[in-house]
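Final report, results section. Input specification for complex C-07:
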Amino acid sequence: MAIRTVVWGENVHEQKDSIVQSIYPDGMHAAIAAALNENKAISATTATLQEAEHGLTEKRLAETDVLVWWGHAAHGQVDDAIVERVQQRVWEGMGLIVLHSGHFSKIFKRLMGTPCSLKWREAGERERLWVINRNHPIAKGLGEHFELPMEEMYGEAFTVPEPLETVFISWFEGGEVFRSGMTFQRGAGRIFYFRPGHETYPTYHDGNVRQVLRNAVEWAYNPAPAWASVASAPNVPVDKALEKLVEKGPKLHAHGEEGFR
Amino acid sequence: MAIRTVVWGENVHEQKDSIVQSIYPDGMHAAIAAALNENKAISATTATLQEAEHGLTEKRLAETDVLVWWGHAAHGQVDDAIVERVQQRVWEGMGLIVLHSGHFSKIFKRLMGTPCSLKWREAGERERLWVINRNHPIAKGLGEHFELPMEEMYGEAFTVPEPLETVFISWFEGGEVFRSGMTFQRGAGRIFYFRPGHETYPTYHDGNVRQVLRNAVEWAYNPAPAWASVASAPNVPVDKALEKLVEKGPKLHAHGEEGFR
Amino acid sequence: MAIRTVVWGENVHEQKDSIVQSIYPDGMHAAIAAALNENKAISATTATLQEAEHGLTEKRLAETDVLVWWGHAAHGQVDDAIVERVQQRVWEGMGLIVLHSGHFSKIFKRLMGTPCSLKWREAGERERLWVINRNHPIAKGLGEHFELPMEEMYGEAFTVPEPLETVFISWFEGGEVFRSGMTFQRGAGRIFYFRPGHETYPTYHDGNVRQVLRNAVEWAYNPAPAWASVASAPNVPVDKALEKLVEKGPKLHAHGEEGFR
Amino acid sequence: MAIRTVVWGENVHEQKDSIVQSIYPDGMHAAIAAALNENKAISATTATLQEAEHGLTEKRLAETDVLVWWGHAAHGQVDDAIVERVQQRVWEGMGLIVLHSGHFSKIFKRLMGTPCSLKWREAGERERLWVINRNHPIAKGLGEHFELPMEEMYGEAFTVPEPLETVFISWFEGGEVFRSGMTFQRGAGRIFYFRPGHETYPTYHDGNVRQVLRNAVEWAYNPAPAWASVASAPNVPVDKALEKLVEKGPKLHAHGEEGFR
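Structure output:
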């Protein structure tokens, strides 16, 4: 079965900004989903902010293997309950790809536990992404580096935790650097942050970027069954202990009582 | 100047449970602070849930180098605004030591981005903590292992992100293991999680535990000035770029405009 | 095409010790290879110390995707030139699974850069392996823990670098703990250390252990082309620079000269 | 007591190349030691390749807290026995700062377990080091970035293992990036790799570079007693087990026998 992927798009600038419309007439989410669907092992659909429950119902998330997230102007309009639902699914093992300005999305900040801040400049400058971890699955099919002729600059310090792996580092024409591809894990869910994708440039039409998106979905996919109990804290009673155990000392909890949360 | 340390105690069971009262007549926070103050390089005071703003005013946190956190029954009563304030200070560089049942505190879950769940059993069983990273500052003065004759069991899987360092792993009489000492960093703040400390046992009177607490405060202390702007995302305009830059392409933001959050 | 896997066995105790012979009449390497070949996606053969070039010719290694290593009594008899050859292949992307007493093999110590020392006791005690990273590919199909009724004890501190991931931690009847499954990467090669496998016990006939071995081979396999130039340090001359560059300052190297090594 | 630091210099180009002589008339090692001695908490002396035992006798290393290493043209002339001696001391807890072309030194490659390869260009180009981990002790007193007007370029992929922490990333005028400051630990020893320092430029006279060198020595210093037994693998006999243990099953080793290595 193909990797069931949902591309979530904020879909705001596509409705208001003629430049963005001209580059992404069907929305950025549609362009990203089309890039993914070029790989037959992936089956990508889309969801947007404007849909009921932002298109991310419990049922749909339960049937999603990997979620791709692009947002920018409307982070604050994403319902906290939906964010919690997405977080739970990541913990259970759903993969998550966070793109560009999604660094400030509620879901990414929640999963990182850090500000996720950075420097920025919108000047259409040249970005060159260097592959740091050359045979990493996310770098499949790429050369030693690739370039985007015009992109928004993001500069360090990017306040995320130390990643599991640094896959890409960007060089910018204006003098900055940025860790443009990093992997993380939260619960059973694999997370990849990928920097490029400012809405006024045709970044998601770039062949290398599209290759990275497909690679990332394949990497983030975890075929293991969902870890539904990931957030539960079960009591293991004395008579179920794996080694013979004689209870000692005073107790706070009565037998069979739930723990505090 | 000594390391300005605040020991935050939930102070609930100390008021209601005669066993806890008999072990910690002045509260667990007082016992922990006393352990810290045995080191003259540390100056520890206490704060509790019941105080105004839980004893954690902006002013006080601004003057705190390291915060130690013990909570259990009343995690839900901690005000979200105070939790955000603590999180901001950690990002700025304040050290944080999270103890035992604090694994389910709002502040720890927020900083980890994971459920922080585990298994547990209250049976007064023997815990043996093995030192994994023997010359780590937090293991200063310890042997290869130390024992607590009666403790609550916490068992894996402990759903935190991969740590920077694993300092202790516990062996439990009933057959479980647990990563009992782990380091993390969020923003500029160093975080240490330390497992022992169930309220019905005299754990914070144990010499080795008290040594670990003092070591952890010294390790978590970062003398660098607070990184007040850690969560800001400054624009770097073209005319301030470090390399000569000619602006190209279409723009979303007018000059001088703030970025989206 | 199946994952081309070579199981390397020292094959010493199988020749001399009647207990080991009775458990592994065809050698430990044969038992391990048989476990792997139960998965049709893996094609496992064997190689031993006694063969010419220890069975690891350049040609054979070039056609090996994953190497599994078991050694104990004869680490010192492994030719340094072969060790270097294996290391180069790991850097190029060949996966490596190091088993049990292989912690002291030349190849593992070289790749870790540490002593790889530990505590040990041969007393047939019970080992319980806890799954720390539950949905990790190497834990596929396992429960929360599994047991081996008799194993050699290995105890911490295990002097390896901080791993990328901790997958298993063992509890031992005699009171020790051990990080029994850890992942590393060196160059493009993924490395998994897996603790169980003392030769006087039937460990490699255990169903859970065999499952882990198969999982580990699938995890370690990297389909990317071999990174043959991984150890080379190419000069990038000024006229090949990606950005226009005017050479400045004094020089040590004449144009076209090789760098020092 | 001050941190006993030895600056090891290869001292080859200083003897043969008039440019290097003019910049470092007393040798690069002397300039580096002078930078360190500006901090009274550090007591730095020098050692060179040409001295007996390269100036690194057992006695001297035993009295060294932190070793700083600069080499380039003569890596191959460093005696393997001395390299092993240095490695043992790092494992025991001695700090190690590896500078610039020291990436290809025997000691660094041995501790990393990887090729430590990279790209390079000697063109006197501008390097800008960005601080990634802003309040890290090694970044003390620095701004968000600092520049070196002329340096040799080192470009990724730099084939080292994933570091514990990335402290600096460099931007180069010619279009490359490089992780210029990374921390590692091997055994009890902390290791910092710092990129700048090509011998034909006055890099070690730069104020920011000198600040980093002092910071790095303070960071790498571990006051814990040397872990002399770090490479030993002690047997823990059944009668010394921490839990009561009844020996079971067949045995390979006679009682009291040493383990294999």
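The helical segments of chain B are 13-16, 18-23, 28-37, 58-62, 80-92, 106-112, 207-220. The radius of gyration of chain B is 21 Å. This concludes the modelling results for the funded period.
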